[in-house]
Amino acid sequence: MHSSPAASTLYSRRRARAARRNRVPDWVWGAGLGVLALFFVGAFFAVREISGGGDGSCDGPLAPLAGGEITAEAFVNEEEALTRVISMLTLGDRPGAEAAFFGPVHAFTHNVDPPLRERDGDAAKELCEAVILMENAFAVNISSSRVALHVDLVRTLLRDAAETLGYPRPE
């Protein structure tokens, strides 16, 4: 059974009208893409501000944060604190891990940079890059196990930093 050309044309017109009625207007798509672009630009600047890396480069030291002195005891405390953060992440307590990290523990990762940079610029740059990666890992939605890997790298680099600065290596 063949339909007549008139019936086919009428059917096509009905489909076209139905498609226009159900179609999302172009301005909605444009506005949505604009909001999405603004979100990504804002997220970039927020992560950059959180990291304290300024231009995202570790050619200079991390921005200092309010915190205590760099001592052998401080390195031991940092070791214990980062071990707790990793444990919380392993157990799936990401909010607890973030709360445990951001504060004195986070400040220490920034404040150890200048004295380490005086002794070993390459080690300080490596630590700086690892700290920024860790901060960014906390800031975005990646798995807790991946965040824990970043925290563990920083913990290892801080152990090395303690030795470079003349303190016993915390374990």
Looking at this protein, list some descriptive labels.
single chain; mainly alpha; 2 domains; 8 helices; 171 residues
Q: What's the SSE blueprint?
A:
Layout: H1 5-22, H2 26-51, H3 72-90, H4 94-101, H5 104-111, H6 113-119, H7 121-139, H8 144-164
Overall description:
With 171 residues, the protein is mainly alpha-helical. The chain has two domains: 5-48; 52-164, no CATH class. It contains eight helices and no strands. α6 runs antiparallel to α7 (121-139). 25% of the residues are buried.
**If you compute it from the alpha carbons, what radius of gyration comes out, rounded to the nearest whole angstrom?**
26 Å
Element-level helix/strand string = HHHHHHHH
Q: What's the overall average pLDDT, rounded?
A: 83
Oligomer class = single chain
Number of individual domains: 2
Which blocks of ≥5 consecutive residues have pLDDT under 50? 50-54
Percent helix, as a range, is over 70%
Q: What is the general shape?
A: elongated
Structural class: mainly alpha
Question: Count of DSSP helices?
Answer: 8
Task: Give the end-to-end Cα distance, rounded to a whole number of Å.
Answer: 84 Å
The largest pleated sheet is described as: none
Summarize the structure.
The chain is mainly α. It contains eight helices and no strands.
